[in-house]
Amino acid sequence: MSARPDHMRRFATLAALEPPRLARVLSTMILFGAAVVVVILFAVPWVQTTSGYGTVVALHPEDRVQSVTALVPGRVERWFVRDGETVRKGDPIAQVVDNDPGLLARLAAERAQVEAEIEAAQQAMAVAQIDVGRSRQLLSEGLVARREYEASMIKVADHRAKLAESRAKLNRVDVALTRQSAQIVRAPRDGRIQSINAAAGATLVSAGDVLATLAPSEPVRVIELLIDGRDIALVHSGRSVRIEFEGWPAIQFSGWPSVAYGMFDARVRSVDPSARTDGLFRVLVEPAPGARPWPAAEQIRLGAKVRGWVRLDTVTVGYELWRQLNNFPPEFGSIRQAAEAADSKGNGAKAKAKPAEGDSGKDGGK
């Protein structure tokens, strides 16, 4: 038996106790683990994030899904496309014809009649203007009364009014002809026919009724993220965002972005100034310049679901746990620093302005 210290010899029972080796190993491991936890809590950095769900949308309005509508009332006589077909700008989609097959012929005849009325009115006005000139000369010579001269001027005004009325009628006929001639509905831009309103082919359609839905090709994609109003004060243009696309294999570590796998980098483009009805704010997110490109449009289409994490300030793991347990908002350090810098600049400007005002007052008093 090994030698015992003198003070231990006084306690024979305590000296006889030998702690098991397993207990010594476990106690050592617990002490080592506690030290590691303390180091992690107070030395390991943690990137704060605020997350939100959203969808992939087109940035430009013309790149979003569009409805191709009928330009004139009538019925669909022929379809030129089917669901899923790719079209170019100006390609025909459908042909709409009027219920009256002789409408175009009657409009053409009416236009010819109005043109004849205009020509007759022009000739009559030319003759009336000659009468005005003759009456003016005879009036100056005293051969006719002034009443006859005024009557000839009234005739010129009447013919001018009839001519204006005929020209207005011609414009209305031309508008009707133009509308009826727009019976071929064409694609407004390059894209793919997403769906066709088959019901329009069996019923009468009015001007503005939807005939087909067109999805433009190669849109500029951005993401609409919905962020909680509690964290929106920390989100501003230029903030880094980590994106996880629906159906794309990815592993996300919120506090350590460098460990994540399958994530895509982005940045905040803009933040809406007001909240939606559900209290969430819409944040537009665009691809980060120089980062890994997003998947192709064939893999991530418009309307795909997305989850994003907006990167905020960097704190310690212990602070982040304390914040989460107390349900506190993320760290406002960057915003506080910016506000203090702005206040210091403002106070400095005021301090400079006050002596100037005092000096001017003194000079004025002198």
UniProtKB/TrEMBL annotation:
Residue ranges with Basic and acidic residues bias: 354-366
InterPro entries in alphabetical order: MFP (IPR050739)
Coiled-coil positions: 104-131
Protein name from the UniProt record: HlyD family efflux transporter periplasmic adaptor subunit
Segments crossing the lipid bilayer: 21-47
UniProt region (Disordered), positions on chain: 339-366
Source organism: Novosphingobium piscinae
Keywords: Coiled coil, Membrane, Transmembrane, Transmembrane helix
